[in-house]
Amino acid sequence: MPAHIVPAQAEIEALAGHRFAGGEYRIAHWENVLLTGCTGTELLPDGLAHPSSLFHLPIAGAGTSIAEMFALGKAESDLSIMIESYEWEFYQPLREEIDYRVEGAIHSSQRIQEVDREYDRIQFRFDIALTSGEPVARSLVTWHYTRNTL
Amino acid sequence: MSPAVGDPIPEWVMPEVSAERMRTMAALLRDPNPLHWDRDAVASLPLNLGRRTINQGPLGLGYMVNMLHAWAGAGSIRRMVTRFPQVVLDGEEVIARGRITNLHSAAGELLADCSIWLEHAERGILLEGEATVSLATDNQAT
Fold it and tell me: Do B80 and A39 touch (CB under 8 A)?
């Protein structure tokens, strides 16, 4: 496997604080039906959206994409990203067909050196609110950008 | 419901993780990662996973959500942290399990802190984390 060029540590650390454009997102009914079905359960009552929507809702709503998040961290390839954790807080349940306002940023970005590998640990934070400003949820996505490992 | 610290949460079983559902999920998430839809891409990795696609994180996590909902009701989750020590593969049977670790009240709600995990019979724990779930208002709890 050819070695990939590892981005400079300072370049990775400089990502912290990067803000996405922000914007709005509405979980469509069809989208909630399909996503909920993928998890193997029935649609939730009363217009509730499946909580797993808290992954893609803020990414799209903040005006970014998985592809852009990979590119910002100089991922070697789509295959080189590993998930550390998803940390979700719900101040109220998510619902379909409601406009949500989303703000997003890179919360932290650091190079991790371990005995047998190095990787870049990047955390993305997204805050979701109603268009009135009332907080709805928060998502903290932590990914590892592996370097010459996968 | 009369919850107590140490109580197990009734398990939730996904009898077979579906490659087709991963494809649908990839489209919904606009997730370009071929790990979720290309078995050859997974087989090319030095992970000895064979020709099986890897479940998206929000899907495996979703099985634990379904367990919590079946137990405490839709809309009950207040906080959920999930870590991913192992991947979930297509064709696998996985079981979401959990246990109450603490009970407390906030703003009139009875909240249960729980340890949660997703396990496979041979490979052990695939996902693990913690959740805080609203069980009832204080005056409904017994």
Answer: no
**CA-based torsion, B42, B48, B51, B57: positive or negative:** negative
Rounded to an integer, what distance in angstroms lies between the CA atom of residue B48 and that of residue B20? 22
CB atoms within 10 A of CB B100: 18
Position B66: which residue type? N
Residue A17 distance to chain B (closest CA, Å): 23
**Residue B53 DSSP one-character state:** P
- Contact by Cβ (8 Å): B67, B77: no
Determine the Cα–Cα distance for residues A66 and B30; give it in Å rounded to an integer. Answer: 7
Contact in structure between B81 and A89 (CB atoms under 8 Å): no
The verdict on a CB contact (< 8 Å) between B81 and A88 is yes
The predicted complex's ipTM stands at 0.94
Say how far apart CA A66 and CA A70 lie, in whole Å.
Answer: 6
Which of B45, B69, B82 is opposite residue A86, by nearest beta carbon?
B82
> pLDDT tens, A35-72?
999 999 999 999 999 999 999 999 999 999 999 999 99
Chain A residue numbers touching B74 (CB-CB < 8 A): 44-46, 48, 93
Count of Cβ atoms closer than 10 Å to residue A74 Cβ: 19
Task: Tell me the chain B residues in contact with residue A45 when contact means C-beta distances shorter than 8 Å.
Answer: 74
